[in-house]
Every structure is written in C-alpha cells, then in structure tokens.
Write a structure and sequence with these properties.
Purple Acid Phosphatase, chain A, domain 2, 6-stranded mixed beta sheet, binds fe (ii) ion
Length: 265
C-alpha cells in the first residue's frame, strides 16, 4: 500500500525588513532575527514542502527591503508563496518576490490541499478589509477548485485578540469572510499574522491560527502597546489528506535589546 505523508509547511510572518540592512525595529535588527529563523528552516529543509509568508514582509515598503528578503530566502530550496500586509508595497513586493522558487500565485494545489491567499491590506491604512472583488474572487476559487481540504491565508486577524490597541486594526469585515467560508466545508484552516503573537480559535470546524513575528512580539492581552520579550517565532503545520492538521510554534533563541517605546503600528 502506498504510504501517504502529510504536507509540511511553515508560515513566516511580520518580518519587517528595511531597505537599510542594519535598521532595527524597536531594538531588534530584523534581518538578523529573520536570519535566525532561516537557519532553523535550513536545518529542516528536507522536511518542508512549502513556505507561506503572510504579510508585513517589509517594514518600509521599499524595493530594497524586498531585495534583502529575496537574498535571505535564496539559500532555501523550498517553494515560497506570499501575500501583503499593511506595511507592504504590493507592487514592489510582487516585482521583487517573483524569482526562482518564490511565486506570486495566490491559488494553487499541493499535496492534496488547496491554498488560497488573500490581500486584506488597504492602501494607507493599518487595519484590514477584504474588498468585494477579493471576496468574489475567493468564492470563485472555492467553487472552481477540487473538493479537497483547503487553507486560506491573509494578513489581518478576523477575530478580536483581546488587545484593544491591536484589535482596532483587525480585519474590519470578518462577517463577510465567514459568509463565504461557511458555504464551503472543505475549508479547514485560516492563517494570519499582524498580531505578533500566537493565537488559536475554532469556528464551525475551521481552525483560525495567528502566528508570532520573526522580529518583535506583542504582549498577549495588553490593552496598550506592550512588547513581549519572548523570542521570535514562526509556525509549522502538518496537513493530512483527510483535512486534519497538527501545528507547533517554534521559537528561535535570539539575543535582543528591546526599545520599549510605542510604535505607530
Ligand atoms: Fe500588520
């Protein structure tokens, strides 16, 4: 009997690279902290089938920041897909992150799962919103793709995370997203970033997972902007052909001196 292995993926999010390679975000050199994550991924390269980068890949939206990201990712021989967050410049991102194993495709099938990547960014705003065009496209993709387990990814959380300063910038129209997803029981997982902390919630048979940043971390449950001195992290997932999944959030040991000033996030 043929042995079926689960698909192994990593979600990397809120990288916040800058045009200036040495620039820090509140004390954290974001190139170096991502480097620590990439080192981990390199050690597990053989086990990973794909990488999902879920927005705020850049901290300044500059072309050079995406070039820096491309250079850092280049040693990894893992197919990589990405979507924009509020700090990204979608055009520069698609221009520079379309190279080698880095793809700009937003709907694809791999390992018996469908993947659909959404753009929840709103130009000039911190909060997220899914346009009618995006919701219509999501529905059309769910209709057109095979009836196999499906993973959706976007940058902004469709739930409150119990941090009022952060909750104001969540996805502003989650009900419209749920209305589409509820019609397709094949949807099993929704991944997002933006909140720089681990989060898990289940709704109507769908797991909604938020993932730590590869640089600074936000304190869970904080009502005002507060950094958490916990190490940078990312998410690993094993996706089984029957729609079940397992996940873990590794942290990478990284020495950092946080600057505890409020960030205009
Ligand atoms: Fe964000």
């Amino acid at each position: 009997m043929k042995q079926v292995f689960p698909l192994s993926i990593a979600q990397i999010t809120d990288i916040h690279l800058f045009a200036n390679e040495d620039q820090k975000l509140l004390g954290v050199p974001t190139m170096e902290s991502l480097g620590a994550v990439i080192e981990y991924l390199q050690m597990h390269e053989q086990e990973l089938d794909l990488l999902l980068l879920t927005g705020d890949l850049s901290g300044d939206g500059e072309s050079e920041s995406y070039e820096n990201l491309r250079n850092l990712l280049s040693p990894l021989q893992i197919p990589t897909y990405c979507l924009p967050g509020n700090h990204d410049h979608a055009i520069a991102m698609s221009e520079f992150l379309s190279f080698g194993l880095i793809s700009q495709r937003k709907s694809f099938e791999r390992g018996g799962w469908n993947f659909i990547l959404l753009d929840s960014s709103v130009p000039g705003k911190v909060h997220g919103h899914l346009s009618q065009e995006t919701l219509f496209w999501l529905d059309s993709q769910l209709k057109a793709t095979k009836d196999i387990p499906t993973l959706i990814a976007l940058h902004h959380p469709p739930f409150l995370v119990n941090s009022s300063w952060l909750d104001s910038s969540r996805l502003q129209n989650p009900e419209e997203l749920f209305a589409v997803l509820d019609a397709y029981p094949k949807v099993k997982l929704v991944l997002f970033g933006h909140i720089h902390q681990e989060f898990e919630k289940h709704r109507q048979g769908v797991g909604y997972l938020g993932t730590p940043s590869t640089c600074i971390q936000f304190q869970p449950g904080s009502q005002d902007f507060t950094l958490d001195p916990i190490y940078p992290g990312f998410r690993l997932l094993k996706l089984h052909g029957n729609g079940t999944w397992e996940t873990s959030v590794p942290r990478v040991a990284f020495e950092q001196t946080l600057e505890l000033t409020a960030l205009g996030y």
